[in-house]
Model the fold of this input.
Amino acid sequence: MPEPLLELRGLCKNYGALAVTDDVSLTVLPQEIHAIIGPNGAGKTTLIHQISGTLRPDRGSVLFAGRDVTALPVERRARLGLARSFQITSIVPGFSVLENVALAVQARSGSSFRFLRPAGSEAAINRDALAALEAVGLAGAAGRMANALSHGEKRQLELAIAIAMRPRLLLLDEPLAGAGPEETARLIGLLRDLRQRYGILLVEHDMQAVFSLADRISVLVYGRVAATGTAAEIRADPEVRRAYLGEDELA
Ligand SMILES: Nc1ncnc2c1ncn2[C@@H]1O[C@H](COP(=O)(O)OP(=O)(O)OP(=O)(O)O)[C@@H](O)[C@H]1O
Done:
């Protein structure tokens, strides 16, 4: 087995008496999509926050590429290659698609373009931004204004912004939310492509998508991992079927 890109060891987070994350341990391997599913309020978003670094766990640790990052802030984790796909609200509507990604390239590279002349650095930033847009199939829309994109295209742009950070692992929180059937199919194809280059931790309510995409699935119930396995194993797990309110979704 390859070394995990991401490893959670016994993560715990309480809000008062409520254990929102209860001894969660799991791994994401390189080129693996590991999906986290669970009923509303199971603690999926809280878990993502602890992985990205916006929330500190009470106990346990987050290891990224073998390094303990539990105490590192979001930016340091991002620089190591742990990228969270931000929600559409982080897209600057009055900027072009290319400019939106260029901002992320600039944020990543910080001062690394400072030795280039201004024109040279701008060209280098745009080249990297265009490469990220190409990776998500949005290069043709580079010159369009971000607010003119369809909902699905905005989702693609979010992914391009995450990719511009040169990640090794993508943390995707409901990347299909609000997408129509055609857009969903396109985004699923895109996520399948991205898996060849990145490890992906996916939180998603669309069960069809999860079962078709995920290499492994972990089911979170009341903050605990009730089961981890392949799609077939999860579908067949009686405890999962009992714990999961929407049993129909597992049919
Ligand atoms: N800051 C907070 N203070 C107190 N309770 C919180 C806080 N944040 C989350 N919770 C509680 O923690 C539980 C888990 O919430 P979380 O948003 O992580 O679940 P989720 O699985 O992402 O849900 P959904 O599928 O609806 O997005 C919920 O009961 C929620 O009310």
User: Anything to note?
Assistant: The CA atoms of residues 141 and 222 lie 42 Å apart.
